Amino acid sequence: MQAFTRHTGIVAALDRPNVDTDAIIPKQYLKSIKRSGFGPNAFDDWRYLDEGAPDIDNSTRRVNPDFILNQQPYDKATILLGRENFGCGSSREHAVWALTDFGFRSVIAPSFADIFFNNSFKNGLLPIALDAAIIDGLFDKVENEKGVEFTVDLESQTVTAGVDVYSFEIDDFRKYCMLNGYDDIGLTLQHAELIRAYEQDRKQKAPWLF
Amino acid sequence: MAARTLYDKLWDDHVVRSEDDGTALLYIDRHLVHEVTSPQAFEGLRIAGRKPWRTSSILAVPDHNVPTTDRSVGIEDPVSRLQVETLDNNCREFGLTEFDMSDVRQGIVHVIGPEQGATLPGMTVVCGDSHTSTHGAFGALAFGIGTSEVEHVLATQCLLQNKSKNMLVSVDGRVPEGVTAKDIVLAIIGELGTAGGTGYAIEFGGDAIRALSMEGRMTVCNMAIEAGARAGMVAVDATTIEYVQNRPYAPQGEMLDRAIESWQQLHTDKDAVFDKLVHIDAATIRPQVTWGTSPEMVVAVDAKVPDPDTVDDHVKADGMRKALAYMGLEAGTPINEIPVDKVFIGSCTNSRIEDLRAAAKVARGRKVADNIKLALVVPGSGLVKQQAEAEGLDKVYVEAGLEWREPGCSMCLAMNADRLEPGERCASTSNRNFEGRQGQGGRTHLLSPAMAAAAAVAGHFVDVNDLMSDN
Ligand code: SF4
Question: Do B17 and A91 touch (CB under 8 A)?
């Protein structure tokens, strides 16, 4: 996994609540058996005026000029500002892969759906939850200052937007894994003996589960 | 020991170890696998030179991409076909049990788990699919995971998890005639909001939940995720134990007796404390229909499309306006005057035998309205299909003008050939009404199977009670 320490980048604002995983990556792209290549189809239904498919060359499609990620400089945005319940819907990790493949390193919103939140950490995409009132202020800032950049610092757990600095919460263990870019599986396998011991014990108590 | 909730008990039973910050390594008893969220996980396993930790915990089935028409010709779309073949190959390579497309037991992963007894009380059940919450109906801890987590469970039989908070949603009293499990859960989501359950594990309780069959409880737990909760669950009782007995994967004989004894502990202790309590009066629930692009945008069938101008919260009002524009609806329109183009009866929410019986009861002796372009009935599994045919339900549907299909996810998310065209309006028994969910530009209204059949017959939404009392 790509480590995350500190990142500065252009912020794109997506001003709607409940942005769901079907919107982030429509289902026709879930047929892929790969992890990469989803970026050009992130927010496909909003980004293009015609319908896409996995085998269609995106450069031949009609682009929706009104959509924020099609406008300069937001086509280079690396931080996404969203509203409440961001990433709701399905468990598809493809949604996170689409955002990272587009170039996003962090999503800032008042709240996130649980599975999306979890999936983000596994892929070096830092989800940051801030108070709705703070988010309102950040939306104003992004609207008023074209191409404004924020800095996200995981070590100090802060978002810096101009002169304003906001702190965010994160579990210690997640922070540790993300700062170091650790692979969860490797860490868990260090406890293989404990897992086997648990299994032995459980086999005694609930043999019908094995 | 202190009084515990059902969720606390299930959690405690599965903790292998904990980090200082509370992150736990949780043991997983049952891992369900489907073709969409698993290929990259198997690939990761191969690249790292790892093997599945416990193959007997895994049950795999293709469901999202399978065609619901004649199976003998295979899958026409090459991209879908490759994904299904990839699952077949991975299962063969790693020695996993798979109900492939030609197996009569094939079906939607959340239908076949319980049907086979592969989902049992007291288990932790995961699947790379958010509607894994369905299995919580059995007094199990069941939740959806992403592909990285699928790989993690394959490799270690465990997951890294943070414990959620406890919420009890108690539906007290009795529901009126014509109100089903689907109406109950839609009403709950209307009350909680789509993010109301975020960070919680929800236990559903109260007389109205206890009175539901296992299939009804599955419908309710299925949509816990639509209220933002990763897991929904119902305590074990006689209904649960009755259902699981004699299923292929369930314990038998003396082992069963031991299991039952342990399952009987799977309920919340009397004095246990929940972080949040929600009470809903069952008697006030009416048949529900969603009007927008989020499941919380729901009203009773005899209500009107709500008006964003009456909502103070600007973010919410704006979301409502966007939803109305997408859905092609005007505020103030009576729900039962909205005409429908297509009808879909199916999905892991409502494709079990009781759902098909409920819809057939409405369709029996009636005809699908002229303005309906297509009405599909898609059973949840091959075995549900067999049962329905043995009861003659397929004939009832076909005589009424509904199409009877092969099992799969079908038009719930339109990854196969079943889909909406732009602007088409669908009465659907599935669980999500997101933009484009059933086809780009398609407009989805969620409702119960009986209400979907009623909409097919009337050509617009209608209270199923009114329709039935007309004859
Ligand atoms: S029926 Fe729909 S919601 Fe259920 S698993 Fe299939 S696609 Fe997902």
Answer: no
User: Whole-angstrom Cα distance, residue B115 to residue B381?
Assistant: 9
Find, among A73, A83, A71, the residue nearest to A138 by Cα: A83
Q: Distance between CA atoms of B169 and B162, rounded to whole angstroms?
A: 21
Hey, CA dihedral for B408, B410, B416, B418, is it positive or negative? Answer: positive
* 3-state class (DSSP) for residue B169: strand
A94-A98-A99-A102 Cα dihedral, nearest 10 degrees:
160
Nearest residue of chain B to residue A90 (CA atoms): B130
Partner residue opposite A198 with nearest CB, options B16, B294, B413: B16
Rounded to 5 degrees, φ, ψ at B335 are -55, -40
Q: Is the shortest distance between the CB of B430 and ligand 1 below 6 Å?
A: yes
Q: Which string of DSSP letters, residue by residue, matches chain A?
A: ----SEEEEEEEE---S--BHHHHS-GGGGG--SSS--GGGTTHHHHBSS---TTS-GGGSPB-TTSGGGSTTGGG--EEE--TTBTBS---THHHHHHHHHT--EEEES-B-HHHHHHHHTTT-EEEE--HHHHHHHHHHHHHSTT-EEEEETTTTEEEETTEEEE----HHHHHHHHHT--HHHHHHTTHHHHHHHHHHHHHH-GGG-
CB A4 within 8 A of CB A121: no
pLDDT tens digits for A40-86?
999 999 999 998 888 889 999 999 999 999 999 999 999 999 999 99
Tell me which of B27, B134, B138, B148 to substitute to probe the interface with A (most A C-beta atoms closer than 10 Å). B148
B452 φ, ψ (degrees, to nearest 5):
-70, -40
Taking the C-alpha atoms of residue B446 and residue B292, their distance in angstroms, rounded to an integer, is 9
Question: What DSSP designation does B388 have?
Answer: H
pLDDT tens-digit profile, chain B (471 residues): 799 999 999 999 999 999 888 899 999 999 999 999 999 999 999 999 999 999 999 999 999 999 888 888 888 888 889 999 999 999 999 999 999 999 999 999 999 999 999 999 999 999 999 999 999 999 999 999 999 999 999 999 999 999 999 999 999 999 999 999 999 999 999 999 988 999 999 999 999 999 999 999 999 999 999 999 999 999 999 999 999 999 999 999 999 999 999 999 999 999 999 999 999 999 999 999 999 999 999 999 999 999 999 999 988 999 999 999 999 999 999 999 999 999 999 999 999 999 999 999 999 999 999 999 999 999 999 999 999 999 999 999 999 999 999 999 988 988 777 889 999 999 999 999 999 999 989 999 999 999 999 999 999 999 999 999 875
The Cα of A83 is separated from the nearest Cα of chain B by a number of Å equal to 8
From the CB of B131, is ligand 1 less than 6 Å away? yes
- Partner residue opposite B25 with nearest CB, options A16, A32, A191: A191
Quick count: other Cβ atoms within 10 Å of Cβ A181?
A: 12
Which pLDDT tens digit goes with each residue over A24-34? Answer: 999 889 999 99
Q: Assess whether the C-beta atom of B465 lies below 6 angstroms from ligand 1.
A: no
Nearest CA to ligand 1 atom 1: B347
Structure tokens at A192: 């293989």
| Degrees to nearest 5, angle at CA B313 with A114 and A142 | 70
CB-closest option in A85, A115, A171 to B146:
A115
Please report the ipTM that was assigned to this predicted complex: 0.92
Strand-pair category, B24-27 with B158-161 = antiparallel
CA nearest to A105, candidates A191, A23, A181, A193: A181
CB B294 within 8 A of CB A85: no
Residue that is written with structure tokens 């996404």 in the block: A80
The answer, yes or no, to whether any atom of ligand 1 lies below 6 A from the CB of B65, is no
